[in-house]
Amino acid sequence: MLKVCIDTNIWISGVMFSGSPSVVVDLAFNRKINVISSMIILEELKKNLINKFDFSPKKVAKLINRILQITDLYEPNGTIKIIPNNHTDNLILETAVLGCAKFLITGDKEHLLPLKSFKYTKIVDPKQFLELFLK
Length: 135
Hints:
Elements: E1 3-6, H1 8-16, H2 20-29, E2 34-37, H3 39-51, H4 57-69, E3 71-73, H5 89-98, E4 103-105, E5 117-118, E6 121-124, H6 126-133
Parallel strand pairs: 1-2, 1-4, 2-3, 4-6
Antiparallel strand pairs: 5-6
Helix pairs in contact: 1-2, 1-3, 2-6, 3-4
C-alpha cells in the first residue's frame, strides 16, 4: 500500500472543510493509503484545533485516537535540517523520511512545497496527490 505522510494543515483542512484535503483524509480513514505520522504532527494538530479552531479537548482526543488507529508512528529526532532556523517543518520532513513515505502531502507553500522532493519522498499538495493517486 502507498505510504504517505499527511501534514498537520491537511488534517485540519480535511476534517473541517470539503475539497482535496477532505478526500485525502477519507482515503486515510478508509485505509486506502498507509499513513506515516509522528507525535509531533499529532500534538500540533491537537494544539491548533483547540487553540485556533475552538475544538473541545474531548473531540480532539477522539480524532487523535482515530488517527492513531490508522497510522504508523515514527519519531524524528531533529537530524534533518533542510529548512533554516531549526524550523519545525524539518521534523515533518524527517517523519516522512523515517517512514519511507512516497509522498508528503502538505499545504505549506512557504517551506515544504518549494522543495518538491527530498530523498525518495515527493512533496505535493492534496490536489497533486489525488491526480497521481487516482490515475
